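Researcher: Let's do a round of design. I'm pasting the structure tokens now; please hold your answer until I've finished.
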């Protein structure tokens, strides 16, 4: 199944959570891990519909690595894979 976002929505593939700290300490699965705030763009909607009938240009494209707000995304699971859907306004930066 393919996800096709509507309007100004963006589908993201979340980055895997770090299992090792910067100093080399391996974190066990029992440690509460924060949700990732970095992801790869998988699909992009056509853009927000403007009053004049045109579409706003999307600020990201497929393949970009982006940063987003911690509580912004909606989590979905399609064909056993986890994805995040956010509005283009919720994307804070690209890497």
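Researcher: That's everything. Go ahead.
Model: Designed sequence:
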């Amino acid at each position: 199944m393919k996800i096709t976002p509507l309007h100004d929505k963006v589908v993201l593939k979340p980055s895997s959570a770090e299992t090792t700290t910067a100093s080399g300490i391996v974190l066990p699965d029992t440690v509460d891990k924060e949700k990732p705030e970095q992801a790869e763009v998988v699909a992009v909607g056509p853009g927000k519909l403007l009053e004049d009938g045109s579409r706003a240009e999307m600020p990201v494209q497929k393949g970009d690595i982006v940063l987003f707000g911690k509580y912004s995304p909606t989590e979905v699971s399609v064909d056993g894979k986890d994805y995040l859907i956010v509005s283009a306004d919720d994307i804070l930066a690209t890497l």
